[in-house]
Specification:
The structure holds two protein chains of two kinds.
Chain A: H1 20-34, E1 50-51, E2 55-56, E3 63-69, H2 73-79, E4 84-87, E5 90-92, H3 97-108, E6 117-122, H4 128-140, E7 145-149, E8 151-152
Chain B: H1 2-10, H2 20-34, E1 41-46, E2 65-70, E3 76-78, E4 81-83, H3 85-97, E5 113-118, H4 124-150, H5 159-168, E6 173-175
Parallel strand pairs in B: 2-5, 5-6
Antiparallel strand pairs in B: 2-3, 3-4
Helix pairs in contact in B: 3-4, 4-5
The chains are: A alpha/beta, B alpha/beta.
């Protein structure tokens, strides 16, 4: 007979799964480390523009996010369709920004306060009017470090 | 015999670890779902302190000012000439360095000032694109300078070397209050 039909006894060898938990744990730790728990639900469109001159932000705790965009469809009945800003998880007015910044400053502490950056996450379709109002407010509030959030250019 | 039986049991009292993988899987799936690998990247700017009087751009010599205007239809006017965004970077580089010593371009990189003005109706996308191109012009010039001086790119220079380059080619941006002709 051919050698392929050789009988090898009755034992059926099992693959050892002893190392499976280790592999899974490794993956688990990876995801735990890279995870940023999403703390605010976006209530407006936020399609960031793309740019090439990007700087990465080093300390996440020293950043406060200001979202600007058109309200999503389900909120349009209540808030209209013109661009608005969102601080934390709710819609806000431009003159709410100083209080928002002050709260963040208190949370971060006196020593690190000068290193706070405001990240402006602005939808690309929004016109400059509201952005300009916010920039003016930031300047008046003494918040000079600003980051125009953008996506890396795909090329 | 009851005694012998219990002795027999004691021989293989391992903890059953087969559910460990399931627990780990559960945690893994939780983190997989909640993860947003979010790279917080963007263009870093430092805004000037607020002052009630507008910056007086006329105090500078006309040849040193590179004025960029963006109107409400997202069109560019660079030094009174229409221009497309694609040409902006190279044009700005030529203006800043002035390699041909022309008398209508900047005297030196230290004197060069970029004056940016937009309309309230300008799209944010266009504004960022223009800002990005102008910043890219400076980045490339600094890279070239660092290459010629220290043989490496600006980003890889030491702190002191970077300061030297920064003093040679400073980034002078001036943003005027926007016009409000366009629809917001």
């Amino acid at each position: 007979m051919s050698k392929f039909s050789k009988k090898r006894g009755k034992s059926n060898p099992k693959i050892s799964t002893a190392s499976l938990p280790d592999i899974i744990f490794m993956l688990l730790f990876f995801f735990m480390v890279v995870t940023v728990l999403r703390n605010s639900e976006l209530k407006l469109t936020n399609n960031l523009p793309s740019a090439s001159e990007l700087t990465k932000i080093e300390a996440k705790s020293l950043v406060n996010n200001i979202f600007i965009g058109k309200p999503l469809e389900k909120y349009q009945a209540q808030y209209g369709s013109s661009p608005r800003l969102q601080l934390g998880d709710k819609f806000a007015e431009v003159n709410d920004i100083p209080i928002f910044l002050e709260q963040h400053r208190v949370k971060v502490g006196e020593a690190k306060a000068p290193r706070i950056t405001s990240a402006l996450k602005v939808d690309g379709e929004v016109t400059m009017g509201i952005v300009q109002d916010i920039k003016t407010t930031l300047r008046k509030a003494g918040q000079y470090r600003v980051l125009y959030s953008a996506k890396p250019k795909g090329n | 015999m009851a005694f012998g039986k219990s002795k027999n049991n004691r021989l293989d009292n391992e903890i059953n670890a087969s559910s460990m993988a399931d627990i780990a899987f559960l945690l893994l799936i939780f983190f997989l779902v909640t993860t947003t690998i979010e790279a917080d990247k963007g263009i870093r700017v430092v805004l000037p302190p607020w002052s009630d009087e507008p910056p007086d751009i006329l105090q500078f010599e006309k040849r040193n000012v590179y004025s960029v205007l963006i109107n409400a239809s997202n069109q560019l006017l660079v030094r009174s000439e229409p221009m497309s965004v694609e040409d902006l970077k190279d044009n700005a580089k030529e203006f800043i360095m002035n390699p041909g010593n022309r008398d209508d371009l900047a005297i030196s990189p230290q004197e060069a000032i970029i004056s940016l003005k937009n309309d309230r109706g300008t799209e944010y996308k266009t504004y960022i694109e223009v800002y990005d191109q102008l910043k890219a012009a400076y980045t490339e010039l600094r890279d070239d300078r660092a290459m010629a001086k220290y043989g490496k790119e600006y980003a890889f220079c030491t702190f002191d070397q970077r300061r030297v380059i920064r003093d040679e080619i400073p980034l002078n941006f001036s943003e005027a209050e926007p016009t409000s002709f366009g629809k917001e």
